[in-house]
């Protein structure tokens, strides 16, 4: 069945540009179909996010101080297969995969809005509202709609448990006209349901607050704000969640609480470590999973059912086994003279070893350990084929816009010409000279986000443009 909301928030609907799609679509059981317009982009075009995480588990990171108690190993939330959902300023402690707010955008961290790794799901009326720079402590001109990875939803302000899962907008409680009591938790849970999550593990849902016991991040609360939050907790605990739980159970939408000391008793308790294990169980042993034989033809798979030892893998002879401790080597990375020295780190990274005479290059895992290795080789002088080089210094760092316009002449129309245009990857310290084929257009992705394009007008001269966007 499809149920229409009783009282939709007018400001969200005013942000909609295509009103023909307001009431189109339907829903059956726990699955909504594509044409129900729940999510939008800034311009008002529909974004079909329904069932996007079909059947997955998610950790709902609420903002109670228990998360700062040291009882939880929060690094487990970064394991493969673990999805997190944050609210308000919670990302100050834990950077989530998804995030929601329902209050003024200026109340929340600039780093959240500008972080493309966080999918921000917010009311549509926020798209043209400005954000606040909490570093400079000043308003800025940037609006929410100019930030990356933001999608929008439409709200309603009259809570009815029997309609809550099925109505065509997202309810976040009651407005003052209907008794009050609104919460970002309600909007977030509905969004999780629509996106296909079916196991929700709450963390930090303490449901208690005092002036000295506020959040897991640094924030004060006055007596009036504490009372307002406690009233909302009481309404969620005594009315909203008890009324919603039978409908959650009927639709297979399971919500658990990972805090045994929480004042919210509606949902069953599950230990944090057990929840992590459950969320990632389908992935298997990610740290030691094999890749050998995966690229073989289907009819040859049985040939490699038993993986050979590394000593029998010629191309991996110098790489340690997955089950052994990696061998660390000094990094040959050259940060160049104009770059500050690289600080020592103990993070294993894949780096190329220096080339040995009459040997192939080897790649081994190792940390960045030397701040100033050997300098990069100098570019060679241009060959006689290039007659002009305009406006390019001898050493141009990546990250700047470079335009080279040489004229290349040749008597052989199919001859390949290799102009001595040297592009250096600062991460590898290796000059690269891309080939040029006359009469064709070649676009190649270059290091540091740069690109190179070669255009030909069909004559014996080529215009060569090298552009680096500095991304």
- Helix-strand sequence: HEEEEEEHEEEEEHEHEHEEHEEEEEEEEE
Count of discrete domains: 3
* SS strand fraction: 15-25%
Spatial separation of the terminal alpha carbons:
48 Å
Q: How many separate helices?
A: 6
Briefly characterize the structure:
By secondary structure, the protein is α/β, with parallel strands linked by helices.
Topology:
Layout: H1 10-14, E1 27-28, E2 31-32, E3 39-40, E4 57-61, E5 84-87, E6 98-100, H2 110-114, E7 119-123, E8 130-133, E9 138-143, E10 150-153, E11 155-156, H3 161-164, E12 170-171, H4 184-194, E13 199-203, H5 223-250, E14 254-257, E15 268-269, H6 272-279, E16 349-352, E17 363-366, E18 416-417, E19 423-425, E20 430-432, E21 436-437, E22 442-445, E23 450-456, E24 462-468
Parallel strand pairs: 4-5, 4-13, 5-6, 6-7, 7-10, 11-12, 13-14, 14-15
Antiparallel strand pairs: 1-2, 3-10, 8-9, 16-17, 18-21, 19-20, 22-23, 23-24
Describe this structure in words.
The chain is of the alpha/beta class and 471 residues long. The protein folds into 3 domains: 10-283, sialyltransferase cstii, chain A (Alpha-Beta Complex); 326-375, no CATH class; 384-471, no CATH class. Helix content is 13%, strand content 19%. It has helices spanning 10-14, 110-114, 161-164, 184-194, 223-250, 272-279, and strands at residues 27-28, 31-32, 39-40, 57-61, 84-87, 98-100, 119-123, 130-133, 138-143, 150-153, 155-156, 170-171, 199-203, 254-257, 268-269, 349-352, 363-366, 416-417, 423-425, 430-432, 436-437, 442-445, 450-456, 462-468. Mean pLDDT is 75; it is low at 18-30, 323-371 and 382-471.
């Amino acid at each position: 069945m499809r149920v229409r909301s009783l009282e939709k928030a007018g400001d969200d609907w005013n942000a909609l540009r295509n009103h023909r799609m307001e009431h189109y679509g339907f829903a059956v059981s726990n699955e909504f179909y594509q044409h129900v317009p729940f999510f939008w982009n800034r311009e008002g075009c529909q974004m079909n996010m329904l069932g996007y995480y079909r059947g997955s588990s998610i950790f709902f990171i609420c903002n109670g101080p228990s998360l700062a108690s040291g009882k939880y190993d929060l690094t487990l939330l970064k394991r493969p297969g673990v999805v997190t959902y944050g609210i308000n300023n919670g990302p100050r402690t834990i950077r989530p995969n998804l995030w929601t707010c329902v209050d003024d955008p200026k109340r929340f961290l600039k780093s959240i809005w500008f972080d493309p790794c966080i999918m921000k799901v917010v009311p549509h009326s926020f798209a043209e509202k400005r954000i606040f720079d909490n570093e400079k402590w000043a308003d800025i001109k940037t609006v929410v709609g100019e930030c990356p990875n933001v999608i929008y939803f439409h709200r309603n302000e009259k809570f009815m448990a029997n309609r809550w899962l099925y109505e065509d907008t997202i309810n976040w409680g009651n407005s003052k006209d209907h008794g009050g009591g609104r919460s970002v938790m309600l909007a977030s849970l509905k969004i999780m349901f629509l996106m296909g999550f079916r196991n929700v593990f709450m963390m930090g849902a303490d449901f208690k607050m005092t002036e000295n016991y506020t959040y897991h991040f640094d924030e004060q609360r006055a007596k009036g704000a504490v009372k307002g939050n406690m009233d909302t907790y009481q309404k969620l605990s005594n009315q909203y969640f008890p009324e919603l739980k039978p409908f959650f159970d009927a639709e297979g939408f399971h919500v658990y609480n990972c805090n045994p000391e929480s004042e919210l008793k509606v949902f069953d308790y599950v230990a944090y470590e057990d929840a992590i294990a459950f969320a990632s169980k389908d992935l298997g042993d990610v740290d030691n999973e094999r890749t050998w034989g995966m690229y073989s033809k289907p009819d040859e798979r049985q040939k490699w059912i038993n993986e050979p030892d590394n000593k029998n893998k010629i191309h991996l002879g110098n790489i340690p086994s997955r089950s052994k401790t990696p061998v660390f080597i000094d990094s040959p990375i050259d940060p160049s003279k104009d770059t500050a020295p690289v600080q020592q780190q103990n993070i294993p990274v894949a780096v190329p070893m220096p080339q040995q005479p009459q040997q192939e290059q080897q790649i081994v895992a190792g940390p960045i350990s030397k701040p100033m290795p050997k300098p990069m080789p100098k570019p060679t002088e241009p060959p006689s084929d290039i007659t002009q080089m305009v406006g390019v210094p001898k050493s141009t760092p990546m990250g700047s816009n470079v335009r080279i316009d040489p004229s290349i002449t040749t008597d052989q129309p199919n001859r390949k010409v290799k102009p001595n245009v040297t592009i250096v990857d600062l991460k590898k310290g290796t000059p690269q000279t891309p080939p040029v084929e006359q009469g064709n257009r070649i676009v190649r992705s270059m290091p540091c986000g740069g690109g190179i394009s070669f255009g030909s007008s069909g004559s014996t001269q080529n215009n060569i443009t090298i552009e680096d966007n500095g991304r």
